[in-house]
Amino acid sequence: MDSLLGESHVPTGELTKAPYNGPAYVGKFLLHSSRIAGPGIPLAHSPVDQRATEFSFGSHHRGFINFAFVDGHVQSVNTQLSSRLAGHLANRHDGQTIGEF
What we know:
The protein is mainly β and 101 residues long. The chain is 8% helix and 15% strand. It has one domain. The chain contains one helix and three strands.
């Protein structure tokens, strides 16, 4: 099961500012429409999480991030999910089979 898309980490105070947020269709800033997952890129625990980067998935919901998966289901994922497992969910070509998490 691979993720297709998820909520973007946008820190408090950055909702209307580039590069964290902006229209995805403009194309000027890759970060308006892209996030990555894997070791070294933590999921943001909240909009004030200092560990998260501009590349992190995140949400203004505390404790979970909503993701849509390639099989069509939507799931809230706990922000405690390891960055290693998040990387496997984001990489459909790594050959890893992910069970329940």
